[in-house]
Specification:
mainly beta; five-stranded mixed β-sheet; 48% strand; disordered N terminus; disordered C terminus; 635 residues; six-stranded antiparallel β-sheet
């Protein structure tokens, strides 16, 4: 069987060689093309190309009938009548150029005689920056180098490594772009200080060159494999003491650790010696997602660091919260005997919560009543009680995670606007852009030094709504008399803003309406009723829907004119008040039918008119000359 396979292989090789020889004979059976001095030349050199016909291969016995043509690729560069043609060619480009000789006979197609390829290149430059590396203690030696400029010629590279006891290894590659070779041998640590010398030689048809020798030891070129099996242990489920562990190759002496929170761009770096696969970390933050990586090295001064290991990502354990909640409150009278206390608080920051907040503990207690306190546990950030109006009340609020509770925030419930002397003055709210408002004020006139802090509070203005919108607030030190509010601020929404000045258990407040951006309202108020009262009328209307107000309304206008009259309507302008939805008009003539409508104004302009209503005053004309509203005017 083996003999049969060997016989088939030899027959196959013979057939291939015969086909190649026949192809050459078929292509050049009429003549030959010769190239001098060589088929491979140096860039800038000239070359002589000759084409000659073999005997009896021309058009006729007369040479003048033979027209030989020389082509460079598909472009004709020379021709001659006779049995031979010779041409000198210069300025050939780098690379390979094909020349073809053809015979043209009268009244026939051109016949291919023969052809030749000429390769133009340069001698190889000296290989530079030869360096070798062995990846891992069990890896093989691989070397890389810079080839220099492209020779555009077939080149052969030989990498040779010489070691102790006259040992020599070498490997070749035959490639235009060869710049690395793996010798396939493994250097062992038996003699870590033994020297090895590597050299690479390149040769082509125009010359040869060798690199400078590169001498190194085992410790110089062996790059450890990246550490593996990385894990972390938290002693007693606490972040205060954790141990990072990993596996390394046996000869590793140094390790470099890097770690960072997942939301950070910068790394914390630690270098350790003789770690033996573990290291304690003492500065991790609780309840934080971290990424860990490790690199290794065999020697303090020699060799190179391994690649970084695959990342270990894990979350550190929780710890007891440390921050105190920012608590705010509202107090509202319900009736003669009862009041409603509403508490609000903000979430702790991640660094303060140090874990997932599971609930909040709220305690409300009468200061001197001796009664048992009201206590509640809630997952929300607000709570409301109804308590007697008598007595003084105090609250405490704390946040809890799986490890414990934060220090409680304690505040005494007081009348935040009870001290008129503490009320901030000249409060203003200016549009700062699409999503913020700048609030400014002046300190209380009579007690500016008593102010311990200011609190700026804001919420969307929704007159008549059953559900109050979320309350927002920020605190400001006593030396600041301005604040930029941006939390939950949206354009074209009106906000009720209050500025509180706090001093011990006393407080004073002032309020204003403000918006970050405004334009004219989309519609006017809807008049829902007109009633007659002793010679005047009372107009009632529905508020403009909040989404159509487009900012803070400054004024309402009531327009009226006689029905079918072409005269300009009269108007009454009313300053906007949150709770107002009616207004009297006492300048109408009895037994005259009027048409009435309303508009609303923001700082950006006036809305379109609302619905029209007709009304005829039935009573006697009791309007004295000149009587009317102070702000009655012609449009």
């Amino acid at each position: 069987m083996a003999l049969a396979v060997r016989g088939c292989s030899l027959a196959f090789i013979f057939i291939i060689m015969w086909l190649l020889i026949k192809a050459k004979i078929d292509v050049c059976k009429r003549g030959d093309v010769t190239v001098k001095p060589s088929h491979v030349i140096l860039l800038g050199s000239a070359v002589n190309i000759s084409c000659s016909l073999k005997p009896k291969q021309g058009c006729s016995h007369y040479s003048s009938f033979n027209r030989l043509i020389l082509y460079r690729f598909d472009r004709r560069i020379n021709f001659h009548h006779g049995h031979s043609l010779s041409s000198q060619v210069t300025d050939l480009p780098l690379g390979t150029t094909l020349f073809v000789c053809k015979l043209a006979c009268v009244n026939s197609d051109e016949i291919r005689i023969c052809g030749a390829e000429i390769s133009v290149g340069v001698a190889p430059e000296q290989p530079q920056n030869l360096s070798c590396i062995q990846k891992g203690e069990q890896g093989t030696v691989a070397c890389t180098w810079d080839r220099g400029r492209d020779t555009h010629l077939y080149s052969e590279y030989t990498l040779q490594l010489s070691g102790p006891k006259n040992l020599t290894w070498q490997k070749q590659c035959k490639d235009y772009y060869c710049d690395h070779l793996d010798l396939g041998i493994n250097l062992t640590p038996e003699s870590p200080e033994s020297s090895f010398t590597a050299k690479v030689t390149v040769i082509n048809s125009l010359g040869s060159s060798s690199s400078f020798p590169s001498t190194f030891t085992f410790l110089d070129i062996v790059r450890p494999l990246p550490p593996w099996d990385i894990r972390i242990e938290f002693q007693n489920a606490s972040v205060s003491r954790c141990t990072l562990q990993w596996q390394d190759e046996g000869l590793v002496l140094l390790n470099r650790l890097r770690y960072r929170p997942n939301d950070s761009e910068s790394w914390n770096m630690v270098d350790v010696t003789n770690a033996k696969g573990k290291h304690d970390l003492l500065d991790l933050k609780p309840f934080t997602e971290y990424e860990f990586q490790i690199s290794s090295k065999l020697h303090l001064y020699k060799g190179s660091w391994s690649d970084w290991s695959e990342s270990l990502r894990t979350q550190t354990p929780e710890e007891e919260p440390t921050g105190m909640l920012d608590v705010w409150y509202m107090k509202q009278h319900i009736d003669y005997n009862r009041q409603q206390i509403s508490l609000f608080w903000k979430n702790l920051s991640v660094s303060e919560a140090r874990g997932k907040i599971l609930h909040y503990r709220v305690t409300l207690q009468e200061v001197r009543g001796g009664k048992a306190p009201f206590q509640n546990i809630t997952g929300h950030t607000s709570w409301t009680w109804i308590v007697p109006r008598t007595g003084n009340w105090a609250v405490a609020v704390s946040a809890a995670n799986s490890k414990g509770s934060s220090p409680p925030t304690r505040i005494n419930i007081t009348n935040l606007c009870g001290a008129g002397l503490l009320a901030p003055r000249q409060v203003s709210a200016d549009s700062g852009g699409m999503d913020y408002i700048v609030v400014t004020w002046e300190p209380p006139r009579r007690a500016p030094s008593a102010v311990q802090e200011y609190v700026v509070e804001w919420r969307e203005l929704r007159p008549g709504g059953d559900i109050l919108p979320p309350l927002n607030w920020l605190r400001s030190p006593p030396y600041n008399v301005s604040a930029l509010i941006s939390e939950n601020i949206k354009p074209y929404i009106c906000y009720e803003i209050r500025v509180y000045a706090l001093s011990g258990d006393q407080g004073g407040c002032s309020s204003i309406l403000g918006n970050s951006k405004h334009k004219a309202p989309l519609s006017g108020p809807h008049i829902n009723a007109i009633t007659e009262e002793k010679g005047s009328i009372l107009i009632s209307w529905n508020s403009i829907p909040a989404q159509e107000q487009m900012g803070c309304i400054l004024n309402y206008r009531i327009y009226w004119k006689e029905r079918n009259s072409n005269s300009q309507p009269r108007l009454c302008e009313i300053p906007y008040r949150v709770s107002q939805n009616s207004h009297p008009i006492n300048s109408l003539q009895p037994r005259v039918t009027y048409v009435l409508w309303m508009t609303a104004l923001t700082a950006a302009g006036e809305s379109s008119q609302g619905n029209e209503r007709e009304f005829c005053l039935q009573g006697e004309d009791t309007t004295a000359p000149g009587q009317g509203l102070d702000r009655l005017a012609h449009s």
